[in-house]
TrEMBL record:
One function term, GO molecular function aspect: nucleosome binding
One Pfam family cited in the UniProt record for this chain: NAD_binding_11
UniProt protein name: 3-hydroxyisobutyrate dehydrogenase-like NAD-binding domain-containing protein
Alphabetized InterPro entries for the sequence: 6-PGluconate_DH-like_C_sf, 6PGD_dom2, HIBADH-like_NADP-bd, HIBADH-related_NP60_sf
Recorded family membership: Belongs to the HIBADH-related family. NP60 subfamily.
Gene: 110675139
Length: 107
């Protein structure tokens, strides 16, 4: 979910929309939650104090993918998200909050 929010805010930035406006619209939907708003605001401010380090989120995605493979159950969205998190980790954001995945989503 967080990778999707990061991508949406990156798209808004590319389209020259105000990210805060996009987040305000998101707040009016059923997707709104304290976590979504907190991470969205962290992305907008480019402040990523670690609550859940990105490297741990990526590890959890990898564990889910390993379990799914053992059960022969495809998780294509999780696999794609894992690649984005791995790239953010390679860019040096592993010890930052998982919302730092936005840095990778901007590419």
């Amino acid at each position: 979910m967080l990778a999707g929010i990061a991508e949406g805010l990156a798209l808004a930035d590319r389209a020259r929309l105000q990210q805060k406006d996009v987040l305000e619209v998101l707040e009016l939907t059923s997707m709104s939650s304290e976590l979504v708003m907190q991470k969205g605001n962290a992305i907008i401010k480019s402040e990523f104090p670690p609550q859940q380090e990105l490297k741990h989120m990526q590890k959890d995605l990898k564990l889910a993918l390993n379990m799914a493979e053992g059960l022969e159950h495809p998780l294509p969205i999780t696999a794609a998200s894992n690649e984005v998190y791995k790239h953010a980790k390679r860019l040096g954001y592993g010890s930052h909050d998982s919302s730092a995945v936005y840095v990778r989503a901007r590419f």
